[in-house]
Each structure stands twice: as C-alpha cells, then as structure tokens.
Amino acid sequence: MARAEDIKKYLIQQFLLDVSVEELADDFDLLANGVIDSLGLLTLVSWLEGTYRLDIDALDVAPDNFRSVAAISAFLDRADAVPDGAR
Questions:
Q1: pLDDT tens per residue, the chain (87 residues)?
Q2: What domains lie within the chain, and their CATH numbers?
Q3: How many angstroms separate the CA atoms of 32 and 61, rounded?
C-alpha cells in the first residue's frame, strides 16, 4: 500500500504537521475535520496530477473523491494512476 503511504506523507507535510503517518487513519475524513479546505483541495489535486501524471477533470474534483486517504487511493485506482517515472 505504498500509494496510501505517499498520500499520507504529502497530507502530513502540507496540512497535519503534528501527526505521524501511523496516526493518520485511511478513513479519517479530511474534509469534515477541516484538514483540507477548497484551496487545500486544489493544492492536493495539483500534487496528484504532477505525482501520478494525471489530468484530473474538474468534474472529478468532487469532495467524495478526496474525503480520505482511502477515497483518494480509490480515485487513483480508478484513474489507473502510476507515479511519475514509473511508465
């Protein structure tokens, strides 16, 4: 589950400086708990596009796709995303 770990590391670096990777549960609701706001969501989408070589359509920027680490990982699975340089 390297992808989930990478997502957690990014989220912690950007939004949760006092939390460890082990403490951030995959199902923790990032939106309801105020970790990510609309600007943070755009920052996250930009990071995902660059990291996984994706072109995320505006219609895909739905809150449910980015609500938790598990939701983000599932979104990347559906998009068949691979890290930059892996193809």
A1: 588 999 999 999 999 999 999 999 999 999 999 999 999 999 999 999 999 988 888 878 888 999 999 999 999 998 876 666 665
A2: 1-81 (1.10.1200.10)
A3: 16
